[in-house]
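Gamma-interferon-inducible lysosomal thiol reductase
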Amino acid sequence: MEARLLFIFIICLFSVNTCSSSSDFVEIFPIKEAEKVQVTVYYESLCPYCENFIVNYLIDVFTEGIDAIADVKLFPYGNAKVNANGNITCQHGEQECVFNTIEACAINAWPDVHDHFPFVFCVERYLYHDKADQWESCFEELSLDPKPVKDCYNSGYGNQLELQYAVDTNSLQPPKKYVPWVVVDGQPLYDDYIYIINNICRAYKGPSLPKACLRCLASFENRMISAPHDKLIPLHPVTYPESANPLFSKIRSSLMSWMFNENKAV
């Protein structure tokens, strides 16, 4: 218990999202599936903006309990292209195609977002910290059997999944302009994707909002009144203003992974 309280304190201290509260850090209550906000995230594994979004913003949907009112789907394809022969070329090279396919295989192996998102987050965390060669540690860290993912990749089935993601991504209306491309109940967020929690909470039409929504919406309104240039929060994981310390973000993302491990062990 002491370790968890310490973890919550540090997350609140270093959080990009200022709406966290240690008194009710995660609130879980039953929600009808039909009432959930539909959230789709179109991304590619080696895009620095996507890495930053997953590691520092999308994670908050789960740690704040917002996933109770949201159905989150991930599409790891991004700005890749399929040529006339059916071969896929990725924006950041062959390695990106590998990681896109690995994450597609994980999503297929563990369809519940609460099962595959920790893995995707873990892989993206290693990529975010330029430690791509350590991604396989995620299986051990999360106590996951690597066989379903590796069999999927080696058999070529992962490539078939990517081809389907290509169809889904290229069918978007309005069309995707960049990645990450985040859509909430059919409406793209454009550059407001970093305010994903606020947008989910506003889109939710259920009977009662999670407490995290009330905190986040109030915090967002206060920031918009006192700091009209709030959207200048850097979207790139390396481009920090001189006054900011990137170490805070690195500590935070590492602790997030630790929390997933602790929750899985309970």
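thats it. The chain has a mean pLDDT of 80. The longest helix spans residues 246-265. bye
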